[in-house]
Amino acid sequence: MRLLLVEDEFDIQNFLRNSLTEAGYQVDVASTGKQAESLAQENAYDTLIVDLGLPDIDGINLILRLRQIGVSAPVLILSARRSVDDRVRGLEQGGDDYLTKPFALAELLARVRNMLKRNTPAGSESTRLRVLDLELDLLRREATRAGQVLQLTPQEFVLLEYLCRNAGRVVTRSMILDKVWGMRIHPDTNVVDVHIYRLRGKVDMKGLQPLIKTLRGVGYVLKDR
Amino acid sequence: MFSRTAKPGIRSAAWRISLWATLAFACGTMLVFMFLHGFVADDIQRRVDAWLSGEAEFLHDVTEQTPRNALYDRMVSEVTELFDRELASRLLPEAASQVAVFVLETNPKGEPTLWVGMGSVNPFLDAIQKTGATFDRPRDLRVQGFDVPFRVVSTHLSNGNIEYLGLSEREELRVLRQLRIRFIVLWPLLVFLGFAIVFFTTRNMLRRVQRITQAASHIGHSDLTARVPQSERNDEIGHLGRTLNGMLDRIEKAMDQLHTITGSLAHDLRSPLTAIRGKLEMSLSAPSRGEQDEAVVACIEELDRLTEFLNTSLDVAEAKADALRLSRSPIQLDELLRSMIDLYEPSMSERGLQIHLQCDEPIIIQADAALIHRMMANLFENELKHLPPHCTINLHLSTQGGNARLTLEDNGPGFAPEVRPHIFERRIKGRDSSGHGLGLAFVDAVIRAHGGTVSASNREQGGACITLSLPLLSPHGNGSAVEAVHGIRLRTHR
Predict the structure, then answer these.
(1) 0.80 exceeded by the pTM?
(2) What Rg do the C-alpha atoms of chain B give, in angstroms?
(3) How confident is the model at residue A92 (pLDDT cuts 50, 70, 90)?
(4) Which of A111, B266, B429, B473 fits as disulfide partner to B366, beta carbons 3.0 to 4.6 Å?
(5) Is the ipTM of this complex over 0.90?
(6) Are A194 and A186 in contact (CB under 8 A)?
């Protein structure tokens, strides 16, 4: 998978390149709109990551230009602007995504992954999810661990489903709030932790290998091996 | 929110202005007429008097020179007839038959020696004697049996007799009466015409003002792009429109500038924050180093708190300046609260708190979902942080008028008396509060930006009570709204 990162701030460029490379992507970097344009013409990219505040051209205009010259890869927009521009909203509907700065790396990786997944034709969606000895029946809304049915509330099931779908990958609290509760909020208190703590009490029963792992300062991960 | 301008009826300025203007106009024309009437009456009187004096002198000369014989009477009556005819030619021809002149001569004892006139001499003689005054200058004389007074002048003859020459004032009064009748007929027409002109002119003027008012009242809190109707006419109202639009231009420019400032401030802070956060995260992913990791984690958490603080304080600042940009959509508030409670309930029961929602019907508002989420989260966080264990939070959602009304009550310690009056201001927090003191200021800002109200008080039986009121979704276009809400609900429940 080859990505093009368009970002003028050297520090951000650096750590994004490092972490994306670490995540197994091949990353090209452009610091200006011009550079990005010529790179996009030369190579075929699976996803573009574009910062809106470029020195030579407005990010949105760059995306529109790239679309004009036939670049169809989905774009993840990085924005330091506070309010979401209507034009960004428009692009979002076209399959692109946006992320406000500052962001958690886990979230960036999740978005990139999502966009790449969207880009590849989806196979028939399974009605069952399986992670090690944890099994979720999506139709009957039932979860079993080591053959034993777990007594979960509907909300806990949704939370566990989200963790399972992202098994082996880090999810942040913001991502959980957004995807499970549909809220883009940043609580001061540990509301999400309490939910995870309760879920863990039901999923990671005594004598079994703990599956839900907390990565302090980052988020949670459901172990898949 | 904008005030709807009611259709002005009988109390409209146009109506009042026209009434007063008409009153002034009516009084003015009446005064002018009275003045002219007086002037005309005086003038006619003066002319009549001059004629009378001249004729009396002529008669005096004639009678002095005519010997007192049988011819004398005929002589005088012929002269009188001459007067009549002369008058008739000067006045209206049809009035000729009515012209009445009399000549009376009395001896020093007051007995009549000569009488030329209508009817008997006696009423005239009585009237002259009753006045008791001399008629050296023309004077009015009222004679019994005649409804119109006579204008009378006298001359002293050399034989001691007095000769009176009288002229009926009928003609003079008739002219004046005609003048008055014409005025009385024309005056109401004139006044009505004046009223109509004033009324329609002012109403047209004020309609333009009203159009401006209506347009101005629609220029909402966050929409500053609209302008009031402007006319090319160079009058006061055209000026008003241009001035208002100029003012709006300046306000819009100032707002844009504010957005630019807050935007660039946010941008300038966000870029380094992103870089710092990224580096910290990278260092976490490196092999664990125990204590150092703890410090890095704490730094990341502080950074997130700082970011949230930055966002919230900019939102509050913009909302205070009525410049918060909302992207509104229909929201089912009771569903939103339920999923919010769903999120917070475990944390609350962990702390020994209970939370209940009472709501009997679906309540839909038109609002910025992200802001309402954050606002409700702020309220819940507030309760979570400040309530001691074993307290209960009661939420009650209902409709009141065109508003959704949410009361949030608890049985905790309530607001400290020193912070209560400033509860919705920035940086106000209780002594033992750990927050950044923006929570309730943000709640206030969001509610106000949506055109609602918020108030906080302590309950009598102890505990705090916060009441929010938000305008309900207006009934227009309900179909699509309900559909959209349905969509939201599906999304949150998944």
Answers:
(1) no
(2) 49
(3) low
(4) B473
(5) no
(6) no
d(CA B301, CA B150): 117
Mutation target vs A (from B277, B308, B316; most A CBs, 10 A cutoff): B277
Per the DSSP assignment, residues forming a β-bridge with B332 are: B364
- List of chain B residues whose C-beta atoms are within 8 Å of the C-beta of residue A185: 373-374, 377
- Which is higher by pLDDT, B192 or B99? B192
> What average pLDDT is seen over chain B?
81
Ranges of beta strands (E only) in A23-127 are: 26-30, 47-51, 75-79, 97-100
Residue for token pair 């950044």: B436
Q: Do B280 and A104 touch (CB under 8 A)?
A: no
Residue B196 CB neighbour total at 10 angstroms: 12
Domain span(s) for CATH 1.10.10.10 in chain A? 128-222
**Residue B323: pLDDT band by 50, 70, 90 thresholds?**
confident
Exposure letters B230-242 (e unless 16+ CB within 10 A, then b): eeeeeeebeebbe
* Number of other residues whose CB lies within 10 A of the CB of residue B43: 10
Highest mean pLDDT among B173-187, B217-231, B253-267, B292-306: B173-187
Strand order in the sheet with B464-471: B354-359, B392-400, B403-410, B464-471, B453-458
Tell me the mean pLDDT in the region A45-50.
92
DSSP bridge pairs for B163: B105, B155
Stronger pLDDT, B450 or A188, i.e. the higher one = B450
Residue range B65-84: mean pLDDT, rounded:
76
What band does B23 get if pLDDT is binned at 50, 70 and 90? very high
Residues of chain A with CATH 3.40.50.2300: 2-119
Place of tokens 């679906």: B362
Six-digit token string for A181: 């509760």
Could you tell me which residues come within 8 angstroms of residue B440 by beta carbon, excluding any fewer than 6 positions away? B378, B382, B423, B424, B428, B456
Residue B56: closest CA among B140, B200, B183, B153: B153
**Percent of chain B predicted with pLDDT > 70:** 87
| CATH number belonging to domain A2-119 | 3.40.50.2300
Of B135, B114, B120, B485, residue with least CA distance to B335: B485
Cα gap B450→B424, rounded to integer Å: 16
- Report B:392-431 residues touching A (Cβ under 8 A): none
pLDDT tens for each residue of B80-106:
777 777 776 665 555 545 557 888 888
**Region A128-222: CATH code:** 1.10.10.10
Say whether the peptide bond before residue B229 is cis (omega within 30 degrees of 0): no
Residue B144: pLDDT over 50:
yes
Query: In the A/B pair of chains, how many CB contacts fall below 8 A?
Result: 127
More confident: A157 or B309:
A157
Distances B64 to B80, B125, B157, B189, B217 between C-alpha atoms, Å: 16, 22, 7, 57, 94
Residue A77 CA to chain centroid, in angstroms?
A: 13
- Inter-chain residue contact B278 with A82, CB threshold 8 Å: no
Residues of B in contact with A187 (CB under 8 A): 377, 381
Residue A11 with chain B: CB contacts under 8 Å: 272, 275, 278-279
Burial B422-461 (b: 16+ CB within 10 A, else e): ebbebebbbeeeebbbbbbbbbbbbbbbbbbebebeeeee
Q: Can you list the positions of beta strands (E) in A105-211? A: 128-131, 134-137, 142-145, 148-150, 170-171
CA distance B269 to B276: 11
Question: According to the model, what pLDDT value does residue A176 have?
Answer: 93
Query: Taking CB atoms and an 8 Å limit, are A105 and B281 in contact across chains?
Result: yes
Helical spans, DSSP H, in B288-410: 291-320, 333-350, 369-386
